[in-house]
Amino acid sequence: MKDETILSGMQPTGALHIGNLEGALKNWVNLQNDYNMYCCIVDWHALTESYKDTSVLKERIYQVAVDFLAAGLDPEKCAIFIQSNVKEHAELHLIFSMLTTVPTLTRLPTYADKKEDLGLDSYGFLGYPVLQAADICVYNADKVPVGKDQEKHIWLAADLAKRFNGLYGETLREPQVLLTKIPLIPGTDGRKMSKSLDNHIMILDTEEATAKKLKRMFTDPDKLRKDDPGHPEVCPVFALHNVYSDNPNETIAPPCRTGELGCVDCKAKLIINLNNSLGPIREKRVVIENNKDYIWDVLNSGATRARERAASVMESVRSAMKMEYF
Fold this sequence. Notes:
Blueprint lengths: L4 E6 L7 H14 L4 E6 L1 H8 L6 H15 L6 E5 L5 H10 L4 H5 L2 H10 L4 H4 L1 H10 L5 E4 L4 H18 L7 E4 L27 H9 L20 H9 L3 H4 L1 H6 L4 H27 L2 H29 L6
Parallel strand pairs: 1-2, 2-3, 4-5
Helix pairs in contact: 3-14, 4-8, 4-15, 8-9, 10-14, 11-14
């Protein structure tokens, strides 16, 4: 029996890149074997940036679902669903919004960072951590797998559950952070991999497209010629070797430092290893991408399972609040 519940979510940005794969998705695939797991494609969260053109959401959701399944999420083991198909998220969000303050939300580091970077200042953007808390607590999730940068958001969810319980009686579990070691996945320009920076390598990229991107990837800025001594600890290419190559500290780093291994040959080794790693996922993706009925059936059945859990939790919430009027 799976005694604990996990909630994980990802925005529908369309087909995923290897940063998404290594930073979250592979971890979810492992966790689904040990937990009662809900994997949510959070389309309401996407509205904070994409509210002007929602016509793109359906295809983006579809492509995320394809990558979820190709990477190994099993709809028999976890519920894969679209956030807006479970209206209880919005109901608990409304209740939670009464239990938090504006200063609390403005102090969250991601609010200040994204407000400046993206020029967002809407009520919905300010309150998206409250919706995130509702996403978690509407399933009475015990844990949420995140990296260190999201820890304060899970703290908010736990704090809101605690506040609710203090006001209305023990009803909601206070979720805990399940910190996951997220490998560094730099983009081709050395910055964090991101579609918005156009420095990403897609899961669905062909081997040729992957090779082309890796060949132009930034390397150690001080290694200008093949026989120059390199510094793998600052090289984005070596960071990917740490994920996709066996024993890179023994096979890649030493000859790089001595100048025996040039950047062209170093990248050639990475191209082979990364393509070999992605090969099975890409093959599975090709098989399932055109099976539209299957993908939407997975999302619909996942939503049915999610609604059952969320409805039960919200029944307890309304009962605790004495808001069952009939």
